Amino acid sequence: MFGAGGGTSSYREVEEAEVILLWGSNARETHPIFFHPVLKAVRRGA
Questions:
Q1: CA 24, 35, 2 angle in degrees (round to 5)?
Q2: 7, 12, 19, 34: which has the highest count of C-beta atoms within 10 A?
Q3: Where are the domains of the chain?
Q4: pLDDT computed for residue 7 by the predictor
Q5: What are phi and psi of 22, to 5 degrees?
Q6: DSSP H or E segment with residue 45
């Protein structure tokens, strides 16, 4: 639904990603729940 604020990727997809690009984003501050899977991916080598 347009304007619902839903994410486009699942957390699992983010955790398993090989490359993550955050451009002009402060995800740690503005999306703290989403940022946990990002940190898991980075720790794994993404």
A1: 70
A2: 34
A3: 11-44
A4: 62
A5: -115, 110
A6: none
Q: Residue 20 in contact with residue 41, Cβ under 8 Å?
A: yes
Residue 36 to residues 1, 5, 23, 28, Cα–Cα distance (Å): 25, 18, 17, 9
CB atoms inside a 10 Å sphere around CB 37 = 19
The rounded distance, in Å, linking the Cα atoms of 1 and 44 is 33
What are the pLDDT tens digits along the chain (46 aa)?
454 555 667 888 888 999 988 888 788 888 888 889 999 999 999 9
